[in-house]
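One such given next:
>
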Amino acid sequence: MTADHRTLVDAYPPIGLRISAGPVELGGIDDDTAIELANLAADGVHPPDRMPFLHPWTLTTPDRFHVEFLRYHWGLRARFAPDAWSLDLAVRHDGELVGTQGVVTNDFRRTRAGETGSWLGLRHQGRGIGTLMRRTLCAFLFDELGFEQVTSSAFADNVASNRVSLAVGYRPNGTHRSARGEGWATNNDYLLTPDALVRPPALSVQGAEPLRRFLGLAEAAPNG
């Protein structure tokens, strides 16, 4: 048998993905980037008296924060499979690391749908970056991976996240209750389709074809 020697990106194409639109670049998360992101998140993602996330990952104790952050991203790699995957990408704005933008999907080859999620370091919020990075990811999902629907949700009192969804082109799609703290809170649900997307500047994409093959989507032509 002839040995098949590969680089890390050859073996795991999500790490080699690069998507640029204007000043924003979304890219795969290797270990060096993961620890940079952990340091950024440790500096603050939200005010201490507010919890914007359904899964309150920022409440990890300081002595465990970095290792739990890394364990989460390592786990995404380990569980990545064609029909159930979570694609988390590091976001850089004018070259500076600012947060992550991702999508999670199950039974994708049948549903062609997934849900987006993101976070930004506190000092990078309120500058329009969250809107542009989500527009960029959604354009990529529709154009390159054949998504037909993208959903999102946000606690009703998370004003910034709700505004981003509307600015990207998502349409309100009902509400539901989610546990938060010792009680519950209302989540606003949103739905985005390709025709409703407020598109970002023209995309520049590297690594889409290897990712499509990795996901078993090589036979599907891009929509863009």
Notes: The chain has a mean pLDDT of 90.
